[in-house]
Structures are given as structure tokens and as C-alpha cells.
Amino acid sequence: AAGVIQSPRHLIKEKRETATLKCYPIPRHDTVYWYQQGPGQDPQFLISFYEKMQSDKGSIPDRFSAQQFSDYHSELNMSSLELGDSALYFCASSLISGNTIYFGEGSWLTVV
Amino acid sequence: QQQVKQSPQSLIVQKGGISIINCAYENTAFDYFPWYQQFPGKGPALLIAIRPDVSEKKEGRFTISFNKSAKQFSLHIMDSQPGDSATYFCAASKGSSNTGKLIFGQGTTLQVKP
Q1: For B32, which of A4, A96, A99 is closest by C-beta distance?
Q2: pLDDT tens digits, residue range B78-93?
Q3: What pLDDT does A1 receive?
Q4: 3 state SS of B92
Q5: pLDDT higher than threshold 60 for residue B96
Q6: Chain B CA closest to residue A31
Q7: CA of B109: which chain A residue's CA is closest?
């Protein structure tokens, strides 16, 4: 079965640079979530989209923005990167009518 | 403030033993409680989930026990195997609609010794 696809899997950026992460949800899923997981930490909710509209917002820095496109894929844009942004970023998807949230493999961002 | 508290932080169990991980929540609006298993460098994978109208749910070697009045739920892994060694997260959400974001516990690192 198709899963949530994230790209790139690994990314190294310098401080103050910009990074973009992409997420392709499971086909027919209408809701996308972004989570950030620091080393040894639990995943922290950043933002979610339902039918291309932002549906909820968590602890997402103002330097970050995200959107969901007409084909339901989503992109997380991170600007003015800081060392503390180094983390594993997960995208997840679900159906709005269901509760099961499926996670992608994650994108490792290292800021040096 | 941690809305979902998980314990223990780490757990070592012998092969064939029972692993028990506990979680407590505060928000009574939560109505969906999944457990996720995560291997290093991988995304969390749904293991089993329960709703508060059920006190117990079993799937294979995995059982969730739910105590609504105490606002606690736990994961029991029967006949633990070395392949079960992973980090386990409990989570909670408010259920359907576009507020279904998951609030995770702090995680439990389980090591099953052969």
C-alpha cells in the first residue's frame, strides 16, 4: 500500500539559509500534518492542512511556513535556519473522516 | 505543560516477558488514544488505538487498557520479543474534524533482551 512520501530524506543547510521539505500524502487523504522531532524528543505538532486550507497551528516558528497544493502535496518552508532547527521533520496524512494518522519516514534536517 | 504524560522513560524486559507502558492525560476532550512504535530514523507507525467507550482492546500480542475515570491508559506487550525493541509513544487527540492533531507522550524506549 502507498505510504506518505517525504523528500528529501536528508538535508544539510547552513545557518540563515532556507530549506524546503516536501510531502506527498497517501492517495485520497485530505489532511496533512507536519511534526518536528528533536533528538530524544516526542514529535511536536507544527501545522495541519485540510483541503488545502490551514486547519490547525501548533508550535511552528514564524520563520516557518507551509501550504498544501491542489494535488494535496504539502511543502514546509523554513527560513533563517538556526542550529536548533536541526531535527527530524515528519509529515503525516489522514482522512478528515477518520482518526488514523499515518506518518512518513521523515526528513532529517541538519543545520550547521 | 505536557498534556500526555508517559512512563517509564525506559524499560528493559526479558524475552517472553510482559512490557507495560503507562500514560495519563488531562484533557477530557480527548477521545482517541493511539500507540505508535518508532524505530531509530523511522517514522512512527500506528500499533493499536482505542476510544474511551471501550475499556480494553487487544490485537495479537498488544493490548490497550483504558481507564476513563482515572484518565489513564496503558499498553501491554505480551511475550515480548527482541524485535519489539523500539521507542513507543502514546498519543491523544480530539478525534474527528480538522482538529485531529496528535499530542504525544514523552516516549518509552523498550529493550527486550534475548
Answers
A1: A99
A2: 999 999 999 999 999 8
A3: 67
A4: strand
A5: no
A6: B98
A7: A40
Residues 6+ apart with CB under 8 A from A97: B96
Residue indicated by cell numbers 505508535: B36
Q: Find, among A52, A75, A49, the residue nearest to A64 by Cα.
A: A75
Residue the block writes with cell 489513564: B72
Give the E-state strand segments of chain B in sequence order: 4-7, 10-14, 19-25, 33-38, 45-50, 56-59, 62-67, 72-77, 86-92, 103-104, 108-113
* B43-72 residue pLDDT tens: 999 999 998 889 999 999 999 999 999 999
The helix (run of H) or strand (run of E) holding residue B57 is strand B56-59
C-alpha cell at B76: 501491554
- DSSP letters, A34-98, are EEEE-TT---EEEEEEETTEEEEE-S--TTEEEEE-TTS-EEEEE-S--GGG-EEEEEEEE-TT-
Instruction: Inspect the interface and report whether the beta carbons of B43 and A105 lie closer than 8 Å.
Output: yes
Provide, as residue numbers in chain A, all residues whose Cβ is less than 8 Å from the Cβ of B45.
Answer: 103
CA distance B64 to B49: 7
Q: Do A101 and B100 touch (CB under 8 A)?
A: yes
